[in-house]
Design a protein that fits this description.
The chain is built from 13 helices and 14 strands. It has 410 residues and is of the alpha/beta class. The protein folds into two domains: 4-246, Peroxisomal Thiolase, Chain A, domain 1 (3-Layer(aba) Sandwich); 257-407, Thiolase/Chalcone synthase (Peroxisomal Thiolase, Chain A, domain 1), CATH 3.40.47.
């Protein structure tokens, strides 16, 4: 089996339309949450979200193609352009050995809304001929593969909020096992629409804190009242270590483990015994050959919901035992919001950057810690710390869990 390394990263998020700006904002706990601009929220209980701002893909994507692809596909494509440029990888010379796995949870809900309205108000002739490619989740991976000429494995994990992490984890296995030499991977999502916000509001999953939007997403805080919807894309370039070093590529971190599990409990709620998340993290460490005591940092799923944060904290305590108190943990969702299918990709980028720069990004808005969440969640301020091993968690509806383990290459 081959070693697998991260040689390029790209991002579009509510806190920046590239990695540099997003990472700076994350380190300084600068929230991207604000009042929703996508639509009029006068009749909606939830009025805030973490929207991508000032986004213009026209300088990167051909204008003809822009009219044919949805917002989440645009996010994925722009982030991939950044990641490919960052890595310096030559895709054309090895096209059939370059694959793409971009996880998407839901696709283009706004287009479903728009075309459903047209169908019932004006008839089927008003439906866009691009409606299907606009909406299907795999179009992010599909269009990116076309855009970059990647002819290797092409897939789209659609596993709710674990989609992006499954995209990275499966890509790690493909490179490790020789099915591809390079994988473009991560997650993308754009579901801030009337239907998206209303649906999660009906589930009582979203924060209704609207007085000060920037403080609405508050993972592990006693006063958290739900997650804040986010959008964006996080993309990584994974390569075979020997090929990467031979061409002198910059290496952010090595991907060394991957875990996945099912709760087999409830369609939306995590189990009280936390064992699904615990098994998932344990599998990632076992496949990496790493003991729990070797882990320095966990980028938590940390959604800012009552159940998830307590569940994840209990799972960490159960797996890591006494070492749990020595861990640095944080949730970057305090500034990006919860980007659903994109979350795992965005957080994998942040985890790789944490290892590369030896710094733990903070958990924003953690002012009054929940006594049921007893770990070091790096509140409010980033912390410099020598990091050798880190993991990133994603847990999704349907009881689907994913964890990746990364190790510093230095």
């Amino acid at each position: 089996m081959r070693r697998v390394v991260i040689t390029g990263v790209g991002m579009v998020s509510a806190i920046g339309n590239n990695v540099k700006d997003s990472w700076h904002a994350a380190l300084h706990a600068n929230s991207g949450v604000d009042f929703i601009k996508h639509f009029d929220t006068a009749e909606h209980r939830v009025k805030v979200a973490a929207e991508v701002k000032n986004f213009d893909a026209s300088s990167v994507i051909d204008p003809k193609n822009l009219r044919r692809i949805s917002r989440f596909v645009q996010f994925a494509t722009v982030a991939t352009h950044e990641a490919v440029a960052d890595s310096g990888v030559d895709i054309a010379s090895q096209a059939d050995r370059v694959g793409c796995a971009i996880g998407v949870g839901m696709g283009a809900l706004d287009m479903i809304e728009d075309n459903t309205k047209k169908l019932y108000e004006s008839g089927e002739r008003r439906i866009s001929p691009f409606f299907i490619p606009f909406t299907i989740p795999n179009m992010a991976s599909g269009f990116v593969s076309i855009e970059f000429g990647a002819k290797g494995p092409n897939l789209c994990p659609t596993t709710a909020c674990s989609s992006g992490t499954h995209g990275v984890g499966e890509s790690y296995r493909y490179v490790r096992d020789g099915m591809a030499d390079v994988m473009i991977c991560g997650g993308a999502e754009a579901t801030i629409s009337k239907l998206g916000i209303s649906s999660f509001t009906a589930l009582k999953a979203l924060s209704t804190h609207s007085e000060t939007p920037a403080s609405a997403s508050r993972p592990f805080d006693l006063n958290r009242d739900g997650f804040v919807m986010g959008e964006g894309a996080g993309i990584l370039i994974l390569e075979d270590y020997e090929s990467a070093t031979k061409r002198g590529a910059k290496i952010y971190a090595e991907v060394v483990g991957y875990g996945l599990s099912g709760d087999s409990f409830h369609i939306t709620a995590p189990p009280e015994n936390h064992e699904g998340g615990q098994r998932c993290m344990d599998m990632a460490l076992r496949t990496a050959g790493i003991s729990p005591e070797d882990v320095d940092y966990i980028n938590a799923h940390g959604t800012s919901t009552k159940l998830n944060d307590a569940y994840e904290s209990a799972a960490i305590e159960a797996l890591f035992g006494r070492h749990a108190k020595k861990l640095s943990v944080s949730s970057t969702k305090g500034v990006t919001g919860h980007c659903l299918g994109a979350a795992g990709g965005i957080e994998a980028v942040f985890t790789a950057l944490a290892l590369h720069h030896n710094v733990v990004p903070p958990t924003a808005n953690l002012v009054d810690p929940d006594p049921d969440c007893r770990l070091d969640y790096t509140p409010l301020e980033a912390k410099e710390k020598h990091l050798k091993v880190a993991i990133s968690n994603s847990f999704g509806f349907g009881g689907t869990n994913a964890t990746i383990a990364l190790r510093s290459i230095s």
